[in-house]
Amino acid sequence: MNLPTVVIIGRTNVGKSAIFNRLTESGKALISAIAGTTRDYNVDLVEWQKKSFNLIDTGGVDVSSLKKSIEELLFDQGQAKKQSQIKEGKIQPLLIEKEIIKQTKTALKKADLILLVVDGQAGLLPIERQLALVVKKLNKPVILVCNKIDNLKWQYRPNEFFKLGLGKPWAVSAANGSGTGDLLDEVVKKIKMPKGKKKISIETEKIKVAVIGKPNVGKSSLVNKILGENRVIVSPLPQTTREPQDTEIFFKNQKIILIDTAGLRKKGKIEPGLEKMATKKTLNVIRSADVVLLVTEAHQQLTRQDNYLAGLLKESGRGIIIVANKWDLLGANDEKMTDHIVAYYQNHFPFLNFAPIIFISAYTGRNVKNILEQVLAVHQEQNKRLDQKDLNEFLKEITGKHKPVPAKGLGRPKIYSLVQTRIKPPEFIASIHHEYTLHFSYLRFLENQLRKHFGFIGTPIRIRVKKQANR
Asked: Whole-model pTM?
């Protein structure tokens, strides 16, 4: 059942993302004093008074560009005779700003209700009068939100915004949360819930899939190709994506949350400020993901940074799929070429030999459809739990063929038992006599044999040694 959509708009730096984070009770949107911090629009679920709706935070652009988004939407819908009725000279936005305009236009098209945010401390500006006139032409419900009313000093500032003709300005402070409860009360009054069942089921099992890689390897292009829409901004400029972008999709009746992240660079090259904040968010996304797509460039040599990212993933315990993008730039793509590059990747990432490699082109769409199939397969392997009887037979077979090797001393250890203790990632405990040790190479042998017998494709395996008294 489709939920109502509420879209936040406003000029740059009025606190749209701060309001988004406050209403969704999340820290998803990146916040800074730099105008235009938000580029891709953020979407999250809000629940209030037993009602639910999707909240969209749009990218930061100047008012002229925001008006352009609205006017283009009006033109597309046939609600305006001219594409632009506001004569301010020709606007030539940069490539990224053009994409932000497209995304804002897409968000407004989905909107059932609009939250127009203004800055109460800055007061009413002439450009906001012009913006209000254009917003009215959308013929959609609008709530005027007067932000930054952080204390009594500013309590009378919202009154001047009555001049916009959009009704009561709702005084809020995204910084301390005051007024946001009253605002949500008004939002749920204005939105129309879909007909049908009164209660909407939202909590279903989902797989979180994070898309990571160096800057400009094609992560956002890949996400857009999977989704079939321009959900995230794509440009030739590195670091275009700043905030993790969550999009919910269904594939074979399975809910998947696809998360596009900011490109990760070497620690020494990460600039303070926005890039550092974006990097921190990306690392948090990796920790909370179920499966991670490591995106690389098939036509380029792998780098130390690729190696660093692969190491991060190995330690994270997440399911891993290596995605070799830009396959179309290789020219020849026969079976011999594929085998050669698979061998190259396995040689470069020996500690990820369990991760499947998919060769794709986000530009042409080659093999992109196979990624979600592989995500389901890896997720299933992460959740695999072996029967103890099968493990007992496995241990007897492999220790009979290859005796355990001690880490030190002459005594040969005996593994009493091998028990699976958890999933995601699968973890096992090998119990030995307390006077003996087990060489790390034998643990690696155990892992390889577990994979050979039981699969575990795309998921790390952890094996711990437990020492026991005499048995």
From this structure: 0.63
